[in-house]
């Protein structure tokens, strides 16, 4: 099983580039992506970032310099990055990494629009709200 779906492309190569802060990933269908760690971090599939339902997403800021310090395999379908800011609760399936890679331009545009709507800048320090029930901050 390549990803969460049986017909999903399987990764054929995976390289963490710490200096340039990108995850390089190649898939069995010939697609190759260089996914910035910042994009992975602001779109982490964790509940800490995505919330527990629609409209509960937490806008991430201050992640431009984030690095991946460890990449733990999760079965045959995903990896769990440990980011330099301490975030480690996101499990990135192959399907989700393919989505991040293939939709990078649109995702960056969406992120920029969300920042503008919130009156925030991507380099603003992250504000930690009280009462967070996910256990990670």
Describe this structure in words.
The chain is of the alpha+beta class. The protein is built from four helices and six strands; from the N terminus they run E-E-E-H-H-E-E-E-H-H. The strands form two sheets. The protein has a three-stranded antiparallel beta sheet. The longest helix is centred in the last third of the chain and has 15 residues, at 104-118. The radius of gyration is 15 Å and the shape is globular. 22% of the residues are buried. The model is unreliable at 131-137 (pLDDT under 50).
**Separate helix tally:** 4
Q: So what's the oligomer here?
A: single chain
Alpha carbon gyration radius: 15 Å
DSSP E strands, number: 6
Instruction: Outline the biggest β-sheet.
Output: 3 strands, antiparallel
Which percent band covers the strand fraction? 15-25%
| Helical residues, percent | 10-25%
Task: Give the distance, in angstroms, between the N- and C-terminal Cα atoms.
Answer: 33 Å
**H/E element string?**
EEEHHEEEHH
Shape: globular
Q: Given the helix and strand composition, which structural class is it?
A: alpha+beta
Low-confidence stretches: 131-137
Average predicted local confidence, pLDDT: 90
Strand order of the largest sheet: 1-2-3
